[in-house]
Amino acid sequence: KKIPKLFESLKIKDLTFHNRIGVSPMCEYSSKDGFPTDYHLIHYGSLALRGPGLIIVEAAAISPEGRITPDDLGIWNDEQALALKRVVDFVHSQGQKIGIQLGHAGRKGSTVPPFFHLKEYAKPEDGGWQTVAPSPISFRDGVLPAPRELKIDEIKEIAEKWGAAAKRSIEISGFDFVEIHAAHGYLLNEFMSETSNKRTDAYGGSFDNRTRLVLDVVAEIKKNIAIAKIPLFIRVSASENLEDVDESGWKIEDTNRLADKLILAGVDVIDVSSGGNSDNQASRTRASVKEDLHVTLARQVKNHVGNRALVAYVRGLKTASVAESLLEENVADIVLVGRNFLKNPGLVWEWADQLDIRVTAAQQYVWGFYPPPL
Ligand code: FNR
């Protein structure tokens, strides 16, 4: 019987994923001083027991100012990385692969966790801080104070901190791979887009200048991890335009142009998302966004990169048949699921049932479904 594409293994560099279904990175805002808590062990552990080919741990800040909220996960020091090892070790004990998304929130930092308020600034007395960005333009006028414009040497330091965070992720925590967060209007995306980047130095203006930081970050990561062996993912907002309106800002053509450079620099997987760099398009999950937007975007990126890189699809996946068709039709090579994994950590198992094949999950769970001989 033919194995559905979703359940085919996938080898990237020296790492083999046992299927092509992944848990999309999702901030849980449940950390203390950047450290993971028991919440993380249970949350990621319960997912790992039930068979995803890969889990991408939520955006972890490369520096304290890089957090979205004071409760974000961080990996700016060795102790935090060591605390994450507990999560990684458990996931590995289940024969599963796990990576981590490394991010910096830029001007979208210092907010309160979204389950308390969707649009509120975290004041200094709530653990907030002065945010930083390419240019001093508030993301949300009248609500979020303007960020401070970064100096050139600070920008260089940020790239180095990304490299150090990647090194910690691999060497101390034991993650199998890393993902750079360059989407959703956070720092790297702010540099990439002319709507948020008004600099006139080497980091602003031309396309090459606006993409300089993200490429510096890749270069720093390359210096710090064994890039020939370890898969490198990057999440981009492939377009700032979420609806059919002509707006300025980053476009799919820019993404494809950047993809060429990223591939040459050693990136393996382009994880295609959208939006987030303007307040009226702030929500990744907004209902008004066309349902198939990411199918269109992922297809355009895949058509452009061909076999030079893998593409990850994310958004709205519920059923195995839709996910399978994305792989069959060569829209993407990997499918990521966010919210439906929160609702159902057994989603991979459910999809295996829908496709009538056996799942690979914790033996403690599956043996009762597929008993050994008497
Ligand atoms: C997210 N998303 C997200 N994306 C990202 O790149 N890094 C992150 O840390 C987060 N955090 C996050 C938290 C929560 C609670 C949600 C719901 C979403 C976006 C997420 O990874 C995914 O791209 C979207 O949710 C769309 O996929 P689904 O949920 O429709 O499968």
TrEMBL record:
The alphabetical list of record keywords is:
Flavoprotein, FMN, NADP, Oxidoreductase
Annotated NADH:flavin oxidoreductase/NADH oxidase N-terminal domain residues: 5-352
Gene3D superfamilies tied to this protein: Aldolase class I (3.20.20.70)
CDD domains membership: OYE_YqiM_FMN
Tell me where on the tree of life, at the top rank, the source sits. Answer: Eukaryota
The cofactor(s) it depends on are: FMN
- Is Cell inner membrane included in the keywords of this UniProt record? no
According to UniProt, the name of this protein is NADH:flavin oxidoreductase/NADH oxidase N-terminal domain-containing protein
MF GO annotations: FMN binding; NADP binding; NADPH dehydrogenase activity
